[in-house]
Design goal:
Blueprint (H helix, E strand, L loop, with lengths): L2 E6 L4 H12 L6 E7 L5 E7 L2 H8 L8 E7 L14 E2 L5 E9 L2 H10 L9 H16 L3 H9 L4 E9 L5 E7 L4 E4 L4 E4 L11 E4 L4 E6 L5 E4 L4 E2 L4 E2 L4 H5 L6 H7 L1 H9 L3 E2 L4 E2 L2 H4 L2 H6 L3 E5 L1 H18 L3 E5 H4 L11 E6 L5 H12 L3 E6 L5 H5 L2 E4 L12 H21 L4 H22 L2 H11 L4 E6 L4 H15 L2 E6 L16 E6 L5 H12 L4 E7 L4 H5 L2 E5 L7 H19 L18
Parallel strand pairs: 18-19, 18-20, 20-21, 21-22, 23-24, 23-25, 25-26, 26-27
Antiparallel strand pairs: 1-4, 1-10, 2-3, 2-4, 5-6, 6-7, 7-8, 8-12, 9-10, 9-11, 11-15, 12-13, 13-14, 16-17
Helix pairs in contact: 3-4, 4-5, 8-15, 8-16, 11-15, 11-18, 15-16, 16-21, 17-21, 18-21
The structure holds 2-deoxy-2-amino glucitol-6-phosphate.
The site of 2-deoxy-2-amino glucitol-6-phosphate has 15 residues, from helix 11.
Length: 614
């Protein structure tokens, strides 16, 4: 997601744009840009890779005057973060500029059509194609800017919130949205436009939330006009903002972590977008397509990662071995890089990283490359060091993850790894058509099943309250739920500072069961599946020693519900996909525990969001 901001009125636009972009940097921060129209009618555009502070430095001696302007801070989805791909983007004539948050899915076909009409493009972005299309229609059909925007958006498939400014019409801004947020602030004699209300609230509390497929025609000194894509005027309602600034940046949530936990239906859906096609019944992961031959012959896959990403790799091990029948090893990058590991040229190493900047993972990549292995990446930050260091890979489209405790990145990573495993299984012929399609269609239901689990928040909050003073906790799981036990334990310890350990449930009898007493809460994933009866036995072992069982069970379960002290019922899904939904209760449990213990949820002590040092 990106941040957009625009202004038209009597004040200087630049300070408003820059302050607004700084407020929106949580939405994306790999490049930023502004465009202003000054009193002489000059269109000045300043944009570059980096943060808003880099942009300020870059533009400091330039002409930034003008009382109309647009600004953008980018979270790259198409095209590397660099100067030319940053927004605003120009039309062919360079008279029109535009900023955009979203994804134009059919931009490639539109681009081909425009090229045939002589358009040339400077960037790799979908945004530049749209602003060229708008101008093409405006000039070719002799339309006013607003109508040309409407006509262009009728040709577009995808999500967008855009603001368009025309050098030859200094009293007008055109804004439009579909699937991406946009707020219009109405001042005494000026208008503010932004992705959320945080850049607006200090100037006015009167706002209009644009609805999907609506286009705002904003004219200096005139009433706001809103039209739909049928070019018909629609009524709009001015609301008075009640949220405070800080809570706006967190989308109304108390912390970024909670916001990101609740974003998971969307981030999992976005991570499947363009890769899982229920119409064709096919899964196509770009990073795999380019290396299908290698995967066909691969004798071993090595996942290298740290922390939560390492847990995602452990889930990947179960998925790749079960589905694609390739031996998998999962390595802590920090151990791998110093262990003088044996790496063969036909090994495929997959580095998993949310930030794409983790030093140990980066070093592991360089080591693997030096031994001739093929190295791919699963990253959440486009153009990050790890993304650029690997031979290829796939991005998770989870959007910026601000909370130090990784939540939506984990489920996005597991989503991409699941799709990769299925794609490779199809290539290697290790899966029956029916099993392939069974998993493909079940993956489609995961976002709505996550939504179901999020509705259990109040129950989980009560569980957190009941255990907030515990000093220790044990997490158990079997099979593909064992990594979820590790992840649940990491979540709890890193933000609530309660000591917690994750174990394979069967390992209890090899030592940890000595820890069990009535003061030790044991959190177990006990969902339906091949290991169910064995997990039931493990639960009985714990109960026999007065341990307290809090179990995540499949909705409708009776057997475990009778044994456990507390049961959390989650929707049934395929056993291999359970991690995508069973992790949610543990995320919420750690969040509420931390809040109740007065911990700094988004920035826990001693931790950083990205460990760029050894
Ligand atoms: C997880 O909650 C932690 N923030 C941490 O373990 C993190 O997963 C680890 O540092 C790896 O970071 P990366 O995914 O950005 O490489």
């Amino acid at each position: 997601m990106c941040g957009i901001v625009a202004y038209i009125g009597k004040r200087e636009a630049y300070p408003i744009l820059i302050k607004g972009l700084q407020r929106l940097e949580y939405r994306g921060y790999d490049s930023a840009g502004v465009a202003m129209l000054n009193a002489k009618g000059d269109l000045n555009v300043y944009k570059r890779k980096g943060k808003v502070t880099d942009l300020i430095e870059f533009a400091k001696d330039e002409d930034k005057s003008g009382n109309i302007g647009i600004g953008h801070t980018r979270w790259a989805t198409h095209g590397e973060p660099n100067d030319v791909n940053s927004h605003p983007h120009y039309s062919q004539s360079k008279n029109i500029v535009m900023i955009h948050n979203g994804i134009i899915e059919n931009y490639a076909s539109i681009k081909e059509g425009l090229k045939k009409r002589g358009h040339t493009f400077l960037s790799q972005t979908d945004t530049e194609v749209l602003v060229h299309l708008i101008e093409q229609i405006k000039e070719h059909e002799g339309m006013k800017l607003g109508h040309a925007v409407i006509a262009a958006l009728n040709q577009v498939i995808g999500a967008y919130s855009i603001v368009v400014m025309d050098k030859n019409d200094p009293d007008t801004l055109i804004a439009a949205k579909k699937g991406s947020p946009m707020v219009i602030g109405i001042g005494a004699d000026d208008f503010f436009i932004a992705s959320d209300a945080s850049p607006i609230i200090e100037y006015t509390k009167n706002v209009v939330y644009l609805e999907d497929e609506q286009v705002a025609i904003i004219r200096r000194g005139k009433e706001l006009k809103i039209r739909n894509l049928k070019d018909k005027e629609v009524t709009h309602y001015v609301q008075e903002l009640t949220l405070e600034l800080e809570s706006i940046e967190k989308g109304g949530y108390d912390h970024f972590m909670l916001k990101e936990i609740y974003e998971q239906p969307k981030s999992v859906r976005d991570s499947m977008r363009g890769r899982l096609n229920t119409t064709s019944g096919l899964i196509t992961v770009g990073g795999i397509v380019d290396h299908e031959k290698k995967f066909e012959k691969a004798k071993r896959i090595i996942f290298v990662a740290c922390g939560t990403s390492w847990h995602a790799g452990l889930v990947g091990e179960y998925l790749f071995e079960e589905l694609a029948r390739i031996p998998v090893e999962v390595e802590y990058a920090s151990e791998f890089r110093y262990r003088n590991p044996i790496i063969y040229q036909d090994d495929i190493v997959i580095a998993i990283s949310q930030s794409g900047e983790t030093a140990d993972t980066l070093a592991a990549i360089e080591l693997a490359k030096s031994k001739g292995a093929t190295v791919l990446g699963v990253c959440n930050v486009v153009g990050s060091s790890i993304a650029r260091a690997t031979h290829g890979g796939s991005y998770t489209h989870a959007g910026p993850e601000i909370g130090v405790a990784s939540t939506k990145a984990f489920t996005a990573q597991v989503t991409v790894l699941t799709l990769m495993a299925l794609h490779i299984a199809k290539v290697r012929g290790t899966l029956t058509e029916s099993r392939y399609h069974q998993l493909l269609y079940e993956m489609e239901t995961i976002p709505s099943k996550i939504e179901e689990v999020l509705k259990l928040n109040d129950q989980i909050k009560e569980i957190a309250y009941a255990h907030k003073d515990t000093n220790n906790a044990l997490y158990l799981g079997r099979g593909v739920s064992f990594p979820v036990a590790l992840e649940g334990a990491l979540k709890l310890k890193e933000i609530s500072y309660i000591h917690a350990e994750g174990y394979p449930a069967a390992e209890m009898k090899h030592g940890p069961i000595a820890l069990i007493d009535e003061a030790m809460p044991v959190f177990v994933i006990a969902t339906k599946g091949a290991n169910y009866e064995k997990v039931v036995s493990n639960i009985q072992e714990v109960k026999a020693r007065k341990g307290k069982i809090i179990a995540v069970v499949t909705a409708g379960d009776k057997e475990v519900k009778e044994m456990a002290d507390i049961s959390i019922e989650i929707p049934e899904t395929d056993e291999l996909l359970v991690p995508l939904i069973s992790v949610i209760p543990w995320q919420l449990l750690s969040y509420h525990s931390a809040v109740m213990r007065g911990c700094n949820v988004d920035q826990p002590r001693n931790l950083a969001k990205s460990v760029t040092v050894e």
